[in-house]
Design a protein that fits this description.
This protein is an alpha/beta fold and 511 residues long. 34% of the residues lie in helices and 19% in strands. The protein folds into 2 domains: 162 residues, Leucine Aminopeptidase, subunit E, domain 1, CATH 3.40.220; 324 residues, 3-Layer(aba) Sandwich (Aminopeptidase), CATH 3.40.630. The protein is elongated. It binds ligand BES, manganese (II) ion and zinc ion. The site of zinc ion has 5 residues, from strand 10. Ligand BES binds next to helix 11.
């Protein structure tokens, strides 16, 4: 998507569609909508008076100005009630308008910055949200090796943000650039997590990381089985041994000042490219969704692409343990005891609780960076889906400041976060008579005991664990999470939040 920023009146532009907005309850539109309305001799006021346009959030009304302005069509998008308006409202409205423009056959769209005026949002943030909504709303998964789809014949290729006041352009430009980097990262995460396991293997995931490193001058290290064994990553290897696809341990580093003494923020992503459950095999029904059990890895790698595209001035390291979880003849047996690289031994009660095993070694590996903070993202537990459903991501954090940073970044990104308890009392459920820990704590509070398990591999630094099992996937029948920038499949959740945390998190605050 070409994203341009221009000053002038929206009524003067010649895009295939111009987009203005309308708050609920407004009868005399002001700002850019008012200016356009005057050029159209009151056409928008008429739409309001007749009830055709009510300003409901994401409502779109399209009409042809028939030569009154250079553009061939106008889209009026609703922003809802001013009291309930938020950054995500701007994002959603932009997505709704972009889809309407595409449906109508427009290739170029000129839009005002929703919420940048009377909406009361910071202008750069609002511009970013409009760009994000546009790109994410137009996202479609192009499956490799499929026939061309007849319904994919229309594409919007250019978005121009139009602002009357030229003095505001630098702010809009700055926000638009950030929004584009986040949206393109989120689309990458969606593509990766939507891809089937026969195409997106651990090796393929490592190639994506290498490509990001090459594009943005980052360091990239990919370890194979032998190197994992040298590092004593027995927990990760215990999962990989049932699969014939070779595992990969991926480390990607953005170090803009080339200074290895700066404590980085370390991102860790669960990279199970397929979770069959292993010997504790899952039921057949719905197992195909376990191709996206690497959505955490996708979010973390895509965030690195975003960081690179933004030229973020801070050190960031991404760690992705990647493997399939398969029931091959050499697979781990229930009852096996393995020792993670930090020396903690684990009794494997259920081979389907594999995410915490691979994250154990990844979190332990992170110690070598003396991190300012560690944030892991994982489709970790079915229990998280039971607890919070599909709307909110559960967050476990050992540091209030880091939790607040995650919460605020999530709110701004349209990825709502909910804090879950990380209380040592739950450790009682993962005690084992045969090892330091067991890898399951039974069904009660299973998202909590999984987080407690992870905490045993975390060093003395701020840490947050995001369980995205419920939020990484979206189906049209889950109506309460319906947003005009979601399509069936992976949501790309995490990229917006992680990018926000990286932009806001102050290393000095870390323990
Ligand atoms: N990848 C799954 C968790 C999951 C479930 C993600 C549904 C997305 C949707 C994870 O590896 C898993 O199998 N967890 C088990 C652990 C149990 C066996 C202790 C779970 O939560 O049911
Ligand atoms: Mn599993
Ligand atoms: Zn899993």
């Amino acid at each position: 998507m070409n994203v341009l920023v221009q000053s002038g009146g929206i009524e003067a532009g010649d895009a295939d569609a111009v987009v203005v907005n309308l708050f609920e309850g407004v009868t005399e539109p002001g700002g850019a909508t008012g200016a356009l309305d005057r050029s159209l001799d009151g056409a928008i006021r008429d739409l309001v008076a007749s009830g055709d346009a009510r300003g409901k959030l994401n409502e779109t009304v399209v009409f042809h100005p028939r030569g009154a302005i250079p553009a061939p069509r106008v889209i009026v998008v609703g922003l809802g009630s001013p009291a309930e308006f938020s950054l995500d409202g701007a994002r959603q409205a932009a997505a709704a308008a972009a889809r309407e423009a595409r449906r109508a056959g427009a290739r170029s769209v000129a839009s005002v910055v929703h919420g940048g005026g009377v909406g009361g949002l910071a202008l750069a943030d609002a511009a970013g949200a409009v760009v994000e909504g546009t790109i994410l709303g137009l996202y479609r998964y192009q499956a490799p090796g499929t026939l061309p789809r007849e319904d994919f014949d229309r594409e919007v290729d250019t978005l121009t943000l139009v602002e009357f006041d030229a003095a505001k352009l630098p702010e809009i430009e700055r926000g638009a650039r950030v929004g584009q980097a986040i949206a393109e990262g989120t689309c990458l995460a969606r593509d990766l997590a939507n891809q089937p396991a026969n195409l997106l293997t651990p090796t393929a995931l490592a190639e994506v990381a290498q490509r990001i490193a090459d594009d943005h001058r980052m360091g990239c290290q990919v370890l194979g089985r032998e190197q994992m064994a040298e590092l004593k990553m027995e927990a990760l290897l215990s999962v990989a041994r049932g699969a014939s696809q070779p595992p990969r341990f991926i480390v990607l580093e953005h170090n803009p000042a080339s200074d290895d003494t700066v404590p980085p923020v370390v991102l860790v992503g669960k990279g199970i490219t397929f979770d069959s459950g292993g010997i504790s095999i899952k039921p057949a029904s719905g197992m195909e969704e376990m191709r996206s059990d690497m959505a955490g890895a996708a979010a973390v790698l895509a965030t690195m692409q975003t960081v690179g595209a933004m030229g973020l001035p801070r050190r960031v390291v991404a760690i992705v343990p990647a493997t399939e979880n398969m029931p091959g003849s050499d697979a781990s047996h229930p009852g096996d005891v393995v020792t993670a690289m930090n020396g903690v031994s684990i009794e494997i009660i259920n081979t389907d609780a594999e995410g915490r095993l691979i994250l154990a070694d990844a979190l332990a590996y992170a110690h070598r960076y003396d991190p300012a903070a560690v944030v892991d993202v994982a489709t970790l537990t079915g229990g998280m889906v039971m607890a919070l459903g599909y709307r909110m991501t559960g967050v476990f954090a050992n540091d209030d400041g880091l939790w607040e940073a995650v919460r605020d970044a999530g709110d701004a990104a349209g990825e709502p976060m909910w804090r879950m308890p990380l209380d040592p009392v739950y450790n009682a459920q993962i005690r084992s008579p045969f090892a330091d820990l067991r890898n399951t704590g039974g069904r009660p509070g299973s998202a909590v005991t999984a987080a407690c398990f992870l905490s045993r591999f975390v060093g003395d630094h701020a840490w947050a664990h995001l369980d995205i099992a419920g939020t990484n996937w979206w189906e049209a029948d889950i109506t309460y999470t319906k947003k005009p920038y979601y399509v069936r499949g992976n949501t790309g959740v995490g990229v917006g939040t992680l990018t926000g945390v990286l932009r806001s998190w102050d290393a000095d605050r870390a323990a």
